[in-house]
Design goal:
The complex is a heterodimer of chains A (562) and B (66). With 562 residues, chain A is α+β, with helices and mostly antiparallel strands. Helix content of chain A is 36%, strand content 17%. In chain A, helix 13 packs antiparallel against helix 14 (464-476). Chain B is built from 3 helices and 4 strands. Chain B is globular. Classes of the chains: A alpha+beta (562), B alpha+beta (66).
C-alpha cells in the first residue's frame, strides 16, 4: 500500500450517502448545473437499503377510485403515522414529487409497469385503504440510478467514510473522511450538504446472534446522525425502534410481498390470529402485526408461520418470483430450508429492532422543514436519515426534492466557508488513532456490549427505570471508546461505526424517556405509560445536543384534520 | 461461508470486490478473498453482478439450523 495521501475537495453540493435518496438528490442538483460530489462508505452501484434489490413503490395514482387520491393518501398517512408525520412536509417531499419520481425511475430503465400489459401490479397491506404498493422488479434499480448520476457528471467517492461535520460561524463549512481501502484523508468544503445515510442498524441483538443478519442494511450505522447531532443539528422521531416479521433464521424483507399477496399469519394451533387484534387482520399496519406476533409468542402459541396454501397457483408463482426482487437470496434460503412452493408453512419470527421511522409514511433522524433543510444553514437531509422521509417512494421523490432545495440554497452562497487547519489535524489524529493501538478492545466487543444494553433495556417493552439503567450503562461505556483498536482500515471503519451506534443509542433512550406514553406499539411501548396520549404527545420529540454534550429534548406538537 | 467463489469460473474482474456493500470481498493478486464472511448481509449483489456466474451464496449453519 502506498503512503496515504491528504486530499482537499471544494464542491457546490456534497451528498453524503449514495443510496436511493442520495442519488436522487445528486441527480436534481446536477441537472441544475451544480458541481456535485457523492460520498459513500460502499460503492454507489450497490449501497444502502436497496443494494441488492427492491420490490415495491408505494403511491396513489389518481385512477378515479375514491382511495386513490391525494386526499385519501394524506388521510391514510395521518392515520398510520399520527404524531410522527408532518403532512405539510409529506406533501412537499412526496405528493408534489411523486409523478416525476415514477417517470424518473422508468426513464432510467426500471419499468414499474408490467412491460407486456402496460399496467401497474398493485397490492394492499400495512393499513392501506387500497392497493398502494406497486410491485415491480427493482433488482437493478440501484445500478441504474448510479449510472444516471455518473451520466450527469457527478464526482463520486466510493469507500469513503465521513468522520465529522464542521461549521463556520454557525453555518456549514464542510466535512472530513477517510478511504477505508487506502487510508487517504479527505477534507471537503461544500456550500451545502445533503445527509442521506439511512437509519441505524446493528443496535440490537439479532435473532441468530450475528449482527449482520438484518432486515435493513448493516452498513447503515447512524454515522451522520451522530455527526449531525454533534454539530448542533436537531433530530426527531429518534425514540422509535422498528421491527418486522421475518423468516426464522434469516432477517430478510418479504413482509409486504407475503401479506400484499394475501398470505395469512397462523400460530402453532393453526389459527389465523390477526383478526383477534385488528379488523384489517393481515392488512393492518406493520407495527400491529409485530405487536400481535409478540403476544402470540409470549403466550405460548408459537412458533408462528406464514401460510400461503390458499393462494392460487398464479399468485403463488408471482409471490415466489417477487420475493427475490426484494431479497435476492431469500428464495435460495427457502430451498435450503426445504420449503417448497407447493404449500409448506414457513416459520416466521419477529426481527431484530433497529432505530428507524415508526411507519411507512414518516421518517426518523435529522429534523427537516418543507425544503428538506435542517436547523443549521447548509445542512439538508433526505431518505431514511431524515425525520420526514423513508421507504423507496419517499426516497426517490423526496431525495430529488432535497437536491432541488439544496441546489437553490447553494446557488445563493457566495463563497465556501473555511475549515480550521488545527481542527483538521486533530480530526485526522482522532480518526486514525485506533490503528496505533497494539492492544485494546476490538469493535465487535464494544458493539456487543451496546447490543446487550439496548436489548435488555429498551427493546419492544421499556419503562423509565429500564431506560435510565440503559443510559447509565451506555454512558459508562464512553470510557471504553479510547481503548478501541483497529488492526486494519476495515476494522477502523467498524470502530467508528460502533461508537456512532452507541451515541445514537443514547439519543434513542433519552427521547424514549421523554415520551411518557406509548405510540405505534411495540415501536415505542412504555409499560409504565401503556396508552397513547394524543392530548400531550401527538407530535415530535426533538433532540439536540446540550451545552455539556448531553441530549436535550423538546416537544413539537403536530395536528391533523381528522 | 457466504459467498463462495468458484475459482475455475472467476475471471478476477473485481466487480464483486467493488460492489459488496459490507466490504466483505477483496480481490488480491488475481484471487477473490472472502475476508469477512460473518459480515455478509446476504444481499446477493456480488452474485447478481458476477459476469461469469462464479459466485454461490451459502447460509451460515445457524441461519439454517434455528
Amino acid at each position: 500500500m502506498n503512503a496515504p495521501n491528504d486530499y482537499r475537495i471544494d464542491t457546490d453540493l456534497a451528498v453524503i450517502g449514495g443510496g436511493t435518496a442520495g442519488l436522487n438528490s445528486a441527480m436534481a442538483a446536477a441537472e441544475r448545473g451544480l458541481k456535485v460530489l457523492v460520498v459513500d462508505k460502499a460503492n454507489i452501484n450497490r449501497s444502502g437499503a436497496i443494494a441488492g434489490g427492491i420490490d415495491h413503490f408505494q403511491t396513489y395514482l389518481e385512477t378515479g377510485e375514491a382511495w386513490d387520491t391525494r386526499e385519501s393518501w394524506l388521510k391514510y398517512a395521518g392515520r398510520v403515522a399520527r404524531g410522527a408525520t408532518n403532512l405539510k412536509i409529506h406533501e412537499a417531499v412526496f405528493c408534489e414529487e411523486r409523478t416525476a419520481a415514477i417517470e424518473r425511475v422508468e426513464r432510467i430503465g426500471i419499468p414499474l409497469r408490467n412491460p407486456s400489459t402496460g399496467e401497474f401490479f398493485r397490492t394492499q397491506a400495512m393499513g392501506q385503504p387500497g392497493p398502494y404498493s406497486i410491485n415491480f422488479n427493482g433488482k437493478k434499480l440501484k445500478l441504474k440510478m448510479a449510472r444516471e448520476v455518473r451520466r450527469l457528471k457527478c464526482k463520486v467517492l466510493n469507500r469513503v467514510q465521513v468522520s465529522n461535520l464542521f461549521l463556520h460561524d454557525g453555518e456549514l463549512a464542510g466535512f472530513t473522511g477517510f478511504d477505508i481501502r487506502t487510508g487517504d484523508f479527505y477534507q471537503v468544503r461544500a456550500k451545502a450538504i445533503i445527509i442521506s445515510t439511512g437509519n441505524t442498524n446493528r443496535m440490537f441483538k439479532s435473532q441468530t446472534g450475528n449482527p449482520f443478519n438484518l432486515w435493513y442494511c448493516p452498513a447503515c450505522t447512524g454515522d451522520l446522525h451522530r455527526q449531525a447531532f454533534d454539530a448542533g443539528v436537531e433530530l426527531a422521531n429518534m425514540e422509535y425502534i422498528r421491527m418486522t416479521i421475518v423468516p426464522k433464521g434469516f432477517s430478510a424483507p418479504g413482509f409486504n410481498a407475503f401479506f400484499g399477496m394475501g398470505s395469512r399469519l397462523v400460530n402453532s394451533l393453526g389459527e389465523p390470529f390477526m383478526e383477534r387484534y385488528h379488523p384489517m387482520a393481515e392488512g393492518a399496519p406493520r407495527n400491529i402485526m409485530v405487536w400481535s406476533t409478540i403476544q402470540e409468542l409470549k403466550e405460548g402459541r408459537g412458533p408462528i408461520y406464514v401460510d400461503c396454501r390458499h393462494l392460487s397457483q398464479k399468485d403463488m408463482e408471482h409471490l415466489f418470483a417477487t420475493l427475490g426482487y426484494d431479497k435476492d437470496t431469500l428464495p435460495d434460503f427457502f430451498v435450503k430450508k426445504g420449503y417448497n412452493l407447493g404449500g409448506t408453512m414457513i416459520e416466521m419470527t419477529v426481527s431484530e429492532p433497529m432505530q428507524a421511522r415508526p411507519g411507512e409514511q414518516c421518517g426518523s433522524g435529522i429534523k427537516i422543514d418543507e425544503t428538506c433543510a435542517s436547523n443549521i444553514p447548509g445542512i439538508f437531509a433526505a431518505g431514511d436519515s431524515a425525520d420526514q422521509m423513508g421507504c423507496l417512494h419517499m426516497c426517490v421523490a423526496g431525495g430529488y426534492a432535497a437536491g432541488k432545495n439544496a441546489a437553490d440554497y447553494a446557488a445563493k452562497v457566495n463563497a465556501l466557508r473555511p475549515m480550521d487547519a488545527g481542527k483538521m489535524a486533530d480530526e485526522k489524529a482522532r480518526i486514525f488513532r485506533p490503528l496505533e493501538k497494539k492492544s485494546g478492545m476490538p469493535y465487535w466487543e464494544f458493539e456487543d456490549i451496546v447490543r446487550y444494553i439496548t436489548t435488555d433495556h429498551f427493546g419492544p417493552v421499556k419503562t423509565e427505570k429500564s431506560l435510565t439503567t440503559a443510559l447509565t450503562k451506555l454512558d459508562r461505556l464512553d470510557a471504553a471508546r479510547e481503548d478501541l483498536k483497529a488492526d486494519n482500515l476495515h476494522e477502523l471503519m467498524r470502530v467508528h461505526e460502533a461508537t456512532n451506534i452507541q451515541q445514537v443509542a443514547k439519543i434513542t433512550a433519552t427521547t424514549a424517556l421523554a415520551r411518557k406514553e406509548s405510540r405505534f406499539p411495540p415501536y415505542h411501548y412504555r409499560a409504565d405509560f401503556p396508552e397513547t396520549d394524543d392530548a400531550n404527545f401527538c407530535g415530535l420529540m426533538v433532540a439536540r445536543k446540550g451545552t455539556e454534550g448531553e441530549v436535550t429534548t423538546r416537544f413539537e406538537p403536530l395536528s391533523y384534520e381528522d | 461461508m457466504p459467498p463462495v467463489i468458484d475459482e475455475d469460473k472467476c475471471n478476477a474482474c473485481g466487480i464483486c470486490d467493488q460492489h459488496c456493500p459490507l466490504d466483505v470481498l477483496y480481490l488480491v493478486d488475481g484471487k477473490v478473498q472472502v475476508r469477512y464472511p460473518y459480515e455478509c448481509w446476504h444481499c446477493g449483489a456480488c452474485r447478481q453482478d458476477c459476469p461469469t456466474g462464479a459466485i454461490e451464496i451459502e447460509f451460515l449453519p445457524i441461519m439454517l439450523g434455528v
